[in-house]
Amino acid sequence: MLSFRTEMPKPPRPPQAILFDLYGTLVPNFPPEAYRRATEDMAAILGVSADEFMKAWRDRFLQRVRGRNGGVAGSIRGVLSELDVEVNPEALQKAATRRLEFARHLFDSSALTLPVLRKLREEGIPLALVSDCTYEVVECWHSHPLFALFSARSLSCELGVMKPEPERYLHVLRELGVDAEKCWYVGDGGSREFAGACAVGIFTICFRQPGSRDFVYDEDESSADLEIREFSELLSLLSY
């Protein structure tokens, strides 16, 4: 059911482009049990304490999201350096592969959102991904069908800054050659993303993947202009 804030304008129709968040919006937001298993598996492959590795991995979250250590293997190498541990290249690569398997499993969950994204593309609407994410997204970009649907991307690990910095949104608006006030931004509210999108003039829509509230970084205190319960409502909104 569409639920507008009464004091806010209606969304521009048709939108010149739609910008999407990734985790918690298009795919689940790090299910705790799957995240724990994957991280423990990485520690076992590397031959280090699971508790110590888990803590260091979590503590370096912001560094990874800002791309400070480069790719997945580089992020693992940074943790091992902190733990003062050296491993052979084969173990390092196996641990990186396990992390990418975890990421791909999340991306595979986009089967629920892919049909809608494809329909939006068929309607001629360019799509952009604006995600605070680590290098798993970059390393899977050319091999996963989800990412093939996007014409532009703004990834924190590549740009080195996180939402709600205006540049995160302006980056893709410039690349697509569209006007902010004629676009939509769809997210779950993490990283104060609605405040950032609103600041540059984009109409904001809240959609939250079921069960994705376990891990939300810096949740937005601002409300979106519109909240939807079903992802398919985006299609209805085109002609609402």
Mean pLDDT, all residues: 91
Residues in helices, as a percent range: 40-55%
Helix tally equals 11
Instruction: State the major sheet.
Output: 7 strands, mixed
Mind telling me the C-alpha Rg? 18 Å
How is the CATH topology of the largest domain named?
Rossmann fold
Terminal Cα span: 12 Å
Low-pLDDT runs of 5+ residues are 1-6
List how many beta strands DSSP finds: 7
Number of self-contained structural domains: 2
Shape: elongated
Reported CATH architecture of the largest domain: 3-Layer(aba) Sandwich
Order of H and E elements:
EEHHHHHHEHEHHEHEEH
**Major sheet strand order:** 1-7-6-5-2-3-4
Question: Main traits of this protein?
Answer:
single chain, alpha/beta, Rossmann fold, seven-stranded mixed sheet, 11 helices, 7 strands, 11% strand
